[in-house]
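Tip: read the tokens left to right.
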């Protein structure tokens, strides 16, 4: 079954600043640090981390709701450790899920994250074969 996803990215200055968009939504600015760029946008690796965090969050939220857990808030923090040799891709990504809930516990969050990683989040599925992804879980009452 074909289900295409497409984006457009276009250079907007004399260096490497770019505007990217999809589906007519507001554009996202991508750039690189000086001297190649001016640091006026997200780097490609930051966008990758944002994509992983967003994909996993959009999987975890409905899973928790299906478990009939109250979600007062969800925050996902992701950080990557880069290789020292080129290409300086990530060798490890730490991803922390912080759930605010009056009735969920760490095991509930753990089940939702495991399902997201195992069969729902396509970004995680694409990355896990080439980079170690280490989840951390925290539940706060709220």
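Filled-in amino acids:
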């Amino acid at each position: 079954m074909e289900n295409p996803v497409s984006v457009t990215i276009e250079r907007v200055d004399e260096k490497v600043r770019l505007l990217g968009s999809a589906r007519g939504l507001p554009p996202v600015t991508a750039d690189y640090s000086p001297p190649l760029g001016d640091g006026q946008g997200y780097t490609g690796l930051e966008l990758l981390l944002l994509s992983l965090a967003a994909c996993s969050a959009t999987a975890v939220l409905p899973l928790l709701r299906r478990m009939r857990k109250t979600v007062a808030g969800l925050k996902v923090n992701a950080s990557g450790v880069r290789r020292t040799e080129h290409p300086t891709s990530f060798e490890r990504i730490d991803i922390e899920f912080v759930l605010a809930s009056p009735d969920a516990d760490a095991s509930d969050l753990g089940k939702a994250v495991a399902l997201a990683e195992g069969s729902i989040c396509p970004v995680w599925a694409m990355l896990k074969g080439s980079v170690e992804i280490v989840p951390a879980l925290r539940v706060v009452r709220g």
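Strands lie at 8-11, 18-21, 28-30, 73-82, 90-100, 132-140. The radius of gyration is 17 Å.
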